[in-house]
Amino acid sequence: MLLLVTGSQMLYAQDSQPGKRAKFEPPSGQTLLIIGQDLGAIGGFPKPNDDGYADHLPQKPGGVTTYLSLPLLRGMTERVNMFSGDLHAQGILDNPVYKNTVLAIGLHMVGEEKNIAEGTHDDRIKTLAQWIKKTQRPVFLRIGYEFDGTWNKYQPEPYKKAWRRIADQFRTEGVTNCAFVWQACASPYSGNKDKNLRDWYPGDDYVDWFGYSWFLSGSGQIKLTDKVLDLARECGKPVMVCESAPQGYDIARLTKGELSKGKNRKPKTPDEIWSEWFVPFFGYIDKHRDAIRVVAYINVNWDAQLMWGPPYMQGYWGDSRVQANPEIQKKWQETMSDKRWLHASPDLFAKLGLPASP
Q1: Is 345 exposed, middle or buried (0-12, 13-18, 19+ CB in 10 A)?
Q2: Mean pLDDT score, 238-245
Q3: Global pTM?
Q4: Does 338 score more than 90 pLDDT?
Q5: Cα-only R_g, the chain
Q6: Active site residue 276
Q7: 327 in active site
Q8: Pairing between strand 239-244 and 209-214?
Q9: Average pLDDT of the chain?
Q10: N or C: which end of the chain has fewer CB within 10 A?
Q11: Is-contact 60 344, C-beta < 8 A?
Q12: For residue 316, which of 251, 235, 250, 261 has the smallest C-alpha distance?
């Protein structure tokens, strides 16, 4: 049992699977912190990637996020930039800053679901499986992330077949250090928001974790996220916040703009930004901490990246770097200093249940 404290109320809640921890589920009462989603965002690298989270915060994150796609797997063993920051998964592994950090990978497969399901890319899946196996650290693999987002155009049946093909290949290769994460977008802006999530569900035998994205803190976001958590509890799976950031807020400039094109930017104090976005964000996690066991935050200056910056073809995102304002950074550090949060440490992998290497 773990203790919940919500204001003056004290509640008790069980872990997601009483008596049984899911793959890499943190110990009872603790939550793993992951930071993403490119080298510049996480920091700890030579210029130009030396001004990120790890360069400003005293505790290194318990995990970091990167992205790969099938079939090319660009960014796995070489550094690439696809207009949204540098990606280099092997570079993260080779960096001593992250020797005690888990890896979270968003695996993009848009447009390749049928080819994957039919075995066309089995060789590339095998390459990925063997690479993950060699990392010798916990890896969270978000296969076909944000499956319900209309922008991805995933159709349920091909999606599920592709997912199962990937999972079966990993099992064939004897990969034991990878947890499969089924991530919904939970976005009020998705045309699929009224669809049944189960339509895309690969099955209990194929999914280790449920996940969702959180960019807004309004009632629409909460309603859709509730659906994800309801199904996760029904299936007995823990939940990961796979992607999160205060969309539309610019922490460096202390403004908030319209989400479509960033117009009508209004000034905001650090306290207003914290209370409007971060308080509801952490409040929801606290309320559901029996289920939500991993939280990934995107610590990036979106406005400086070609994909996300002007003229805002992907909408307006702003600047979500917690270190971009000293007051926000202080509040973040105070929040993360709670013992419930798991950061990088020599015993982190053991705490998550990864067997020691022979």
Answers
A1: middle
A2: 98
A3: 0.93
A4: yes
A5: 19
A6: no
A7: no
A8: parallel
A9: 93
A10: C
A11: yes
A12: 261
From 25, 112, 113, 243, the catalytic residue: 243
Strand pairing class (63-69; 102-108): parallel
Contacts by 272-279 with C-beta closer than 8 Å and gap 24+? 273/246, 273/249, 273/325, 273/328, 274/327, 274/328, 274/331, 276/217, 276/249, 277/217, 277/246, 277/249, 278/246, 278/328, 278/331, 278/332, 278/335
Q: Which among 344, 298, 306 has a CA at the least distance from the CA of 322?
A: 298
Is pLDDT at 268 greater than 50 in this prediction? yes
- Comparing 193 with 143, the larger pLDDT belongs to 143
Candidates 39, 85, 86; CA nearest to 305 is 85
pLDDT of 8 higher than 80? no
β-strand 341-342 against 31-36: which pairing, if any?
parallel
Q: How far apart are CA 273 and CA 279, in angstroms?
A: 9
- Is the per-residue pLDDT at 10 higher than 70? no
Q: How many residues does the chain have?
A: 358
* Placement of tokens 């199962």 in the chain: 164
Weakest-pLDDT range from 13-27, 110-124, 185-199: 13-27
Residues 6+ apart with CB under 8 A from 138: 24, 102, 103, 177, 179, 349, 352, 354
Q: pLDDT digits over 74-133, tens only?
A: 999 999 999 999 999 999 999 999 999 999 999 999 999 999 999 999 999 999 999 999
Distances (CA, A) of 73 to 37, 77, 343: 16, 8, 28
Question: Distance between CA 166 and CA 143 in Å, rounded?
Answer: 8
Catalytic residue among 25, 146, 157, 234: 146
SS (H, E, C) 82-95: CCCCEECHHHHHHC
Q: Which two tokens stand for residue 221?
A: 């976001």
Check: CB of residue 97 under 8 Å from CB of residue 59.
Answer: no
Cα–Cα distance for residue pair 98/267, rounded to 1 Å: 36
Q: Say if CB 112 and CB 68 are below 8 A apart.
A: no
Neighbours of 26 (CB within 10 A): 22
**What is the model's pLDDT at position 14?**
40
